[in-house]
Design brief:
about 300 residues; alpha/beta; Rossmann fold; 10 helices; 10 strands; globular
């Protein structure tokens, strides 16, 4: 495992600030969209951009809306595929399967639907754990790289357990919900208590149902407990937010050590650095892909 600190990118690169109240996030418009019918529901898949193929598995809350600035930046250099989990806007869940939640199967179906080879999967938070779970099952045959963000092995799950109990009492969220406001502020980090990043995160988070979020948290807790040895032939990298208070850097390093991943720390970023610093994260992703491609090319030339 290697550990690297990306001081070269600078802490201000990609920082989203509001200018005279007129700044808005770029509109993310897919070039193509289609529905993928899966045994666990119908998922809407999107693609934009040209270049090497990249699939983004969104996080615990807010779906692709919570990371759309990163998708926008990555689509400038890559052919980006993205989707939403059940409980988010781009997913139709059959009534008879609402008690069945198999996100790893959904991810594998979406990967198959891309028809890509030499695919990079970027998993954020919950999406990172789903991708890891599929990797341990040996079900990522066309994936050559796995990039994880916002994932780690925490020492205690008690705060999550308390939050989970409160979730089960809620039927829906709205943008004025104090739970959402508190979580968004924690996930974004200091300096983003208001402004465009805060507004976008609150709007995205409020569109995820408490029932869906509860199922995701329960699944993720079980996935962490079941994580064993990860035998793989893919390039594994973990991008760690330096100021992540949801999943601190030390817990992300613990996960990287357990799965044999390299770690790159992104300065000045919190758990939702993919939203607040999209250019910085896009540069880090491009750097990881370029370096792993160069390593693979050298390996082929030496054989």
């Amino acid at each position: 495992m290697s550990f690297e600190f990306l001081t070269a990118l600078g802490t201000r690169t990609g920082l989203l600030r509001e200018s005279r109240g007129s700044y808005e996030f770029p509109k993310l418009l897919p070039e193509r969209s289609h529905w993928r019918l899966t045994p666990y529901g119908n998922v809407q898949c999107h693609v934009a951009g040209t270049g090497s193929p990249l699939l983004i598995a969104p996080g615990l809350w807010g779906g692709s809306d919570a990371i759309s600035p990163l998708i926008f930046e990555l689509a400038k250099s890559f052919r980006v595929h993205w989707f939403d989990w059940s409980g988010d806007a781009g997913f139709v869940e059959p009534a008879g399967l609402r008690n069945v939640f198999r996100p790893q199967s959904i991810l594998e179906e979406v990967i198959h639907a891309t028809r890509e080879r030499n695919l990079t999967v970027l998993g954020h938070s919950f999406g990172a754990w789903v991708a890891l779970h599929s990797l341990t099952r040996g079900n990522l045959p066309h994936v050559s790289r796995l990039i994880l963000t916002g994932a780690g092995l925490c020492d205690s799950h008690r705060p999550a357990d308390v939050f989970l109990r409160n979730l089960k009492r809620s039927k829906s969220f709205d943008s004025n919900d104090p739970i959402i406001a508190a979580l968004v502020k924690t996930a974004l980090g200091s300096g983003f208590e208001s402004g465009p990043a805060y507004r976008q995160a609150v709007a995205a988070f409020s569109r995820t149902s408490p029932a869906a979020l509860s199922k995701r948290m329960e699944w993720m807790t079980e996935a962490k407990a079941e994580l064993g040895s990860v035998e793989h032939s893919v390039s594994l990298t973990l991008l760690a937010g330096e100021r992540d208070s949801v999943v601190p850097v030390h817990s992300q390093v613990r996960l990287a050590e357990s799965i044999g991943a390299d770690v790159t720390a992104i300065p000045g970023t919190g758990h939702l650095g993919v939203l607040t610093h999209p250019v910085q994260y896009a540069q880090a992703v491009a750097r990881v892909i370029r370096q792993s491609s160069d390593t693979s090319r050298r390996r082929v030339l030496s054989e």
